[in-house]
Design a protein that fits this description.
Blueprint (H helix, E strand, L loop, with lengths): L1 H5 L2 E8 L2 E10 L4 H11 L5 E12 L1 H16 L3 E5 L3 H9 L7 E2 L9
Parallel strand pairs: 2-3, 3-4, 4-5
Antiparallel strand pairs: 1-2
Helix pairs in contact: 2-3
């Protein structure tokens, strides 16, 4: 059990020209956010669009939400678009409750090819 709780988040980054897609898996919770934040933050100066695909994310806590907000702010500061794809029900509810749903650029999930 300790191994699973230590590595509850995994992600891969795919680059296609000026766009980067970050595919997240697992849980974005306290103790896992900094690695994702640093990896995506390093992409921002090199890209025009960062898409975070949350299809395989099962849970986001307040630290995870904070990391997404920090990335959004950093992206805007650098003139980079930061978009979320495949918001799950739990994250969508959290974003609604915190009045952040309209802040994040969202992609329509139909007809988007991110591979």
């Amino acid at each position: 059990m300790p191994e699973e709780s230590q590595k509850v988040l995994a992600f891969e980054i795919e680059r296609d020209g000026d766009t980067a897609v970050v595919k997240c898996h697992g849980r974005l919770v306290a103790g896992t956010t900094e690695e994702l934040y640093e990896a995506v933050k390093d992409l921002l100066p090199q890209t025009k669009v960062v898409i975070v695909d949350l299809a395989e994310l099962s849970y986001v806590d307040s630290m995870g939400l904070g990391a997404l907000v920090r990335l959004h702010v950093s992206a805007r500061r650098l003139g980079c678009e930061f978009k979320l794809l495949h918001l799950g029900k739990q994250l969508r509810n959290v974003l609604k409750m915190t009045n952040l749903l309209s802040v994040f650029g969202q992609l329509e999930e139909h007809g988007i090819n991110i591979h």
